[in-house]
Amino acid sequence: MPKVKMPRSTPSLDMTPMVDLAFLLVTFFMLTSSFRAPEPVLVDPPSSTTEIQIPKQVFLATIDKDGRVFVDITNNAVKMAVTKKVMAQYKVPALSDEDLKKFCGMGPFGLRLKEIQRFMELETAERNATYQPGVPYDTSAKVTECELKSWAYETQVAAYNDYKDREQIAKERNMPFDPDSRIQFAIKADANAKYDVVKKVIQVFRNAKVKQFQMITGLEESPK
Fold this sequence. Notes:
224 residues; 4-stranded mixed beta sheet; alpha/beta
């Protein structure tokens, strides 16, 4: 009896579900990712073996090798409240709502208060290319001229209010709340920064009643 020959056909795989899944993943990452703002200064901090991560919510004072100090407040709501308070304290014209949102989202800055408004009027490319002289921090000058102290002190006040508001909302909505989510303070200095500058910034933190802060370092391999 002759064998029955089965018809042969080329196997095919429907890729449509996989393509749809790939596009869904790409869309998800695009919508949930936060792009890092360009930093006006890059520093190379000294290294250490500690593995403690930088807090997500932080008031970071960055010191470059030329002695300039840059400030970054990673909580936009707190940064907005502090900016309004400090500019009013120094009698500097307030920013428009649009410029204020841009300023709070641009990351670290090293500007005097009177320079912020003119800086925000520039185009994005011009702002990235503009030299920033640093936030005034000299403790030997008059109190009204030590702008870094005002930024640090007002951040403490605004951060406390923000923490209490979020805690109250979490209780009302019966939601989990992280007790360690309050803004922390940190200093990140270039390895070639002068010791006197770092010492002055630490003194500013003390004058602003900042009792605890971290020193940010690079990671090196633990000794074997």
